[in-house]
């Protein structure tokens, strides 16, 4: 019986490495640098309040790209991001749709909520960030970067994968056993 080894995988070329690098880093670079170049701000949707039944709803984990717009240019139906009044006891920024604009302020509501927000927005500046477009699912990568527990899981998984790949490489480099005298029909 003859044992043969399998052919080795060809080594990757510098061009192959460059293509892999561009495929991996290209989208990340576009998501980080392009908005800055276009004057856009980006936020990650961490809640479900805008994930309603509207076709232009924004689900959790989406990255929203926004442009500062003068308050006078805002219209009913626009989606804006703002900090609620201190009396609302809401931490962080809120991204909701404008449902009414009158002399007492701007009324907003999340697409998935039954009632408008209980506060009136009184913009203290001359501009408010308005959503231009959003990319669903992309924001989960940003959320992982901000959570230490998910970082540990990600690094642990990468370490486990590296250990498994290293074990497979060591196993495949062992010399093959040679069988001597198999099937020769020798004497007892």
TrEMBL record:
InterPro entries on file: Peptidase_S26
Keywords linked to the UniProt accession: Membrane, Transmembrane, Transmembrane helix
Segments traversing the membrane: 18-40, 149-167
Domain of life the protein comes from: Bacteria
Protein name: Signal peptidase I
Classification of source organism: Bacteria, Bacillati, Actinomycetota, Actinomycetes, Propionibacteriales
């Amino acid at each position: 019986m003859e044992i043969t080894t399998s052919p080795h995988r060809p080594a990757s070329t510098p061009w192959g490495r460059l293509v892999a690098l561009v495929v991996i880093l290209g989208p990340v670079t576009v998501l980080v640098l392009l908005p800055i170049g276009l004057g856009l701000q980006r936020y990650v949707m961490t809640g479900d309040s805008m994930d309603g039944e509207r076709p232009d709803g924004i689900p959790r984990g989406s990255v929203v790209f926004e442009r500062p717009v003068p308050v006078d240019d805002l219209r009913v139906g626009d989606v804006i991001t703002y900090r609620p009044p201190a009396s609302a006891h809401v931490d962080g920024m809120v991204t909701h749709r404008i449902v009414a604009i009158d002399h007492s302020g701007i009324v907003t509501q999340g697409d998935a909520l039954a009632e408008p927000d209980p506060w009136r927005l009184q913009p203290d500046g001359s501009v408010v960030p308005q959503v231009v477009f959003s990319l669903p699912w992309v924001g989960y990568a940003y959320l992982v970067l901000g959570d230490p527990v998910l970082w540990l899981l990600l690094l642990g998984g990468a370490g486990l994968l590296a250990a498994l790949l290293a074990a497979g490489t060591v196993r495949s480099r062992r010399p093959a056993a040679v069988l001597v005298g198999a099937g020769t029909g020798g004497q007892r």
